[in-house]
Design brief:
- The chain is α/β, with parallel strands linked by helices and about 750 residues long.
- Among the domains are: about 70 residues, Alpha-Beta Plaits (2-Layer Sandwich), CATH 3.30.70; about 170 residues, DHBP synthase; about 170 residues, Nucleotidyltransferase, domain 5 (2-Layer Sandwich).
- Helix content is about 35%, strand content about 20%.
- The chain has 24 helices and 29 strands.
- The protein has an eleven-stranded mixed sheet, sandwiched between helices. A seven-stranded mixed sheet has the order 26-27-23-22-21-28-29, with helices on both faces.
- Strand 26 and strand 27 form a beta hairpin.
- Helix 15 packs across helix 21, helix 19 crosses helix 20 and helix 22 packs parallel to helix 23.
- The protein is globular, with a radius of gyration of 27 Å.
- Bound molecules: zinc ion (ZN) (2 copies) and fe (iii) ion.
- Fe (iii) ion (FE) binds next to helix 13 and strand 21.
Length: about 750
């Protein structure tokens, strides 16, 4: 990654230090350096280039060969890009670099307290790009004409701001102001003013880099609860921004590797284990982890320096809508939520939510891939270098799309739930931008098997319009392929056993799948094992109301007399208040109760049985996350449940009778629910490791892949990964794209590419 990151001026400076002659230019594949000089000088130049590239660059490989003749210039020059070369230049937005940070806190610097300070090593990128090439005229900076001093920096290859497209200063760049419902607020310094209002218990909308945040004092329970009420966000955890690492240690544990994630140029939200109850309880009710981030723009650094404690920084929206990006929109949509607005006049062109990551034993995991991470391209195995241009449309929830081009996959930022009209509009807009930016006319379009996903329909229309070939990819096959792709597996690698634990996805037999063991690769798969199908009473209702799944699971495990089996337990008491007879009837008659092998619904059923979110969950995964938090403290002293698996020739069917029988026994003997939750997690991982080992050994397979939304459960992921690694398997997990449906588009792209090459 060498374009749009200050690579050529960096090369220029190194070459000049080593007194080399020659030139540096971009071409379609990367950067070409032609250099003449003494052998020792050339070696020193290459070594320094390799050891200390510019902060945002990434060098995958350097190829070198001897040049004949004489240098084209007596000195070293940066020349314009080679004719016809596509200069993409679209890189992720990057957190404020140390040099810029020092400038904004230095009273002698002309950028002292300037909220839009940036340079070639940091600042907005994807969030401000309207079109290509990536020049100032094609960004949200077009309306700001550089002053003489900024222009001089921009034109000087020796300067850190050489060709920094968003370069700006207080004289010529974007400005901040504070307003409320009545209009602009007169004040000396909008940041000091908003900080005072936040400290006094106010709620402020703050325009950031990829959208508006809603901010309030994270220690003040009254205002956090009020923010939840106004935003109509019942329970989904709120992210917190802390001034620095020492402030974080006041409420969360943090390891050096987690610190590296937090402080890197992507500056994502990182989920950290809570250690102190210093924050308001409403920040993350029922959760053992808090989503924390550090300031990543000068505006945030200045704001955090002006308030005492950490701030809640949650997306500026109502409930599930996409966050606001335009000033007008923020005024209108946040008028019932926020008391004041910290505004600026640089447009946000592309909405980018905060990325969310977590550090697990197998490595870093991306839960939401957006600001700071997208659209960083992912190099694929060499077998994909001649694939036709391909666009994969992604899923329905947590949607993203993916372009496959020149052997690379470019996965878009997280766009959200396509059922939301505004999100769908953003999704279409982003596809248009990416197609323009990467000069891309798809020859092949990949969609999910599900005919009713908005992404499927839009993909069908696009294929129709462009004449591209349409390929439908099974949901869990795409999850598996996504994991294989990010590990550089070749198209012909067809011998991986995938354990895909997921919510819901349409299967090749038209039933709903979710807990799947798949054997194969990009080219195809066998469904060698799966969770036993259990009814989803009420379809979508079953996703919102966990107790429905408890009824379905108990009825499936114990048959007609299931109520007798649970008599006298806390589960029976929980269900006594609910319309169980209606649910039973739906299941018996098969009316609006499709069968599904979902892993997500098993977790919902177990959570509700143990009294965790039985009535309803505000978002998918809430009950499962709370169940995991309940289990976490008991892992050491709780033994796994033993779960038996039927195998008579066909696929292994994982049924839950023994599990539920053991849970009911434990409840009857008064075992703590946390211990039961721990035994459930460990038992599930233990059983999956045993089943996978048996299948893999029988098939002569040594490589396993773990994917699907339920793999975001740290206990299941780490136990399973540990058990399989111990048995000597190579175990692949996802770390470049989410294991949830956010990573689906990558999997669809590679499956479709292989199917396309086979045509
Ligand atoms: Zn900088
Ligand atoms: Zn200026
Ligand atoms: Fe999925």
């Amino acid at each position: 990654m060498v374009q749009g990151v200050g690579f050529r001026p960096h090369v220029w400076r190194l070459a000049r230090d080593d007194r080399l002659a020659g030139q540096v230019l971009n071409d379609g594949a990367g950067v070409v350096i032609e250099a003449w000089g003494a052998a020792a000088a050339l070696e020193s130049f290459l070594r320094r280039l390799r050891e200390a590239p510019p902060p945002l660059a990434r060098i995958d490989a350097i190829e070198r060969e001897a040049l004949g003749g004489a240098p084209p210039y007596p000195d070293f020059r940066i020349v314009e890009s080679r004719e016809g070369a596509v200069s993409t230049g679209v890189v992720p937005d990057a957190a404020t670099c140390p040099e810029c940070l020092a400038e904004i806190f230095d009273p002698a610097n002309r950028r002292y307290r300037y909220a839009f300070t940036n340079c070639t090593h940091c600042g907005p990128r994807l969030s401000i790009i309207r079109a290509i090439p990536y020049d100032r005229a094609n960004t949200a900076m077009a309306g700001f004409t550089m002053c003489a001093e900024c222009a001089a920096e921009y034109g000087d290859p020796a300067d850190r701001r050489f060709h920094a497209q968003p370069n700006a200063c207080p004289v010529c760049g974007p400005q901040l102001w504070l307003e409320d419902r009545r209009g602009p607020i007169e004040c000396d310094d909008p940041i000091t003013e908003v900080a005072e209002r936040l400290t006094a218990g106010g709620i402020a909308a703050i325009k950031g880099i990829g959208g508006f945040h809603l901010a309030c004092d994270a220690r003040n329970e009254g205002v956090v609860a009020e923010l939840r009420r106004r935003k109509r966000r019942e329970s989904k955890p709120l992210a917190v921004m802390a001034r620095n690492v020492s402030q974080i240690t006041g409420f969360c544990a943090i390891s050096p590797a987690e610190l590296e994630l937090l402080g890197g140029p992507a500056a994502p939200i990182v989920l950290l284990d809570k250690v102190e109850d210093m924050l308001a309880p409403s920040v993350a009710p029922g959760q053992g982890r808090i989503g924390v981030m550090l300031p990543y723009t000068p505006l945030h650094h200045l704001l955090m320096a002006a308030v005492e404690g950490p701030l809640v920084m949650t997306s500026g929206n109502l409930s599930e809508e996409p966050q606001a990006t335009a000033n007008e929109d923020a005024r209108a949509r946040l008028s019932g939520i926020s008391d004041c607005w910290l505004m600026h006049d640089r447009d946000i062109v592309n909405r980018l939510d905060d990325s969310v990551m977590r550090l697990d034993k197998p490595g870093p995991q991306i839960l939401r891939r957006a600001r700071g991470l997208a659209p960083d391209p992912l190099p694929l195995a060499s077998g994909f270098s001649h694939a036709r241009l391909l666009l994969a449309m992604g899923g329905e929830l947590k949607s993203s799309f993916c372009l496959l081009k020149d052997g690379q996959a470019i996965v878009s930022q997280h766009l959200g739930d396509l059922e939301e009209a505004a999100t769908h509009a953003d999704y279409r807009k982003a596809i248009g931008l990416f197609r323009d930016t990467f000069r891309f006319e798809p020859e092949c379009v990949a969609v999910d098997l599900h005919p009713d996903y908005h992404s499927t329909r839009w993909g069908e229309a696009l294929a129709e319009e462009t004449g591209a070939r349409l390929v439908r990819v099974q949901h869990h096959h795409a999850h598996l392929a996504s994991c294989l792709a990010e590990h550089g597996m070749e198209p012909a690698d067809d011998a991986t056993l995938g354990i895909v634990l997921d919510g819901l996805g349409l299967g090749t037999d038209q039933t709903i799948w979710g807990g799947e063991i798949l054997l194969g690769g990009y080219g195809g798969f066998q469904r060698v094992g799966h969770f036993a199908p259990v009814a989803l009473p009420g379809g979508a209702q079953a996703m919102r109301e966990p107790w429905r799944n408890t009824v379905a699971h108990l009825a499936a495990a114990f048959g007609e007399d299931w109520q007798g089996r649970i008599a006298g337990t806390t589960v029976a008491r929980m269900l006594a208040e609910r319309p169980v007879a209606m649910i039973e009837q739906m299941i018996r008659q098969g009316v609006n109760a499709p069968l599904s092998s979902s892993a997500g619904r098993l977790f919902d059923a177990m959570a509700a049985a143990l009294g965790v979110c039985p009535d309803r969950q505000g978002y998918e995964g809430e009950a499962a996350m709370a169940l995991e938090a309940l289990a976490a403290p008991h892992l050491r002293h709780a033994g796994p449940y033993s779960i038996d698996v039927e195998a008579e020739g066909g696929p292994r069917i994982i049924a839950w009778h023994d599990l539920w029988a053991a849970v009911i026994d434990d409840l009857n003997s008064g075992v703590e629910t946390g211990v039961i939750a721990a035994r459930f997690h460990l038992g599930l991982a233990d059983m999956l490791a045993r089943v996978a080992t048996a299948i893999a050994e029988a098939a002569g397979i040594t490589r396993l892949a773990l994917s699907g939304g339920v793999m975001q459960n740290r206990i299941v992921l780490e136990s399973l990964h540990g058990a399989l690694t111990e048995r000597g398997f190579e175990v692949l997990t996802q770390s470049r794209v989410p294991a949830n449906d956010g990573g689906l588009s990558l999997g669809q792209a590679v499956v479709a590419a292989v199917s396309d090459q086979g045509e």
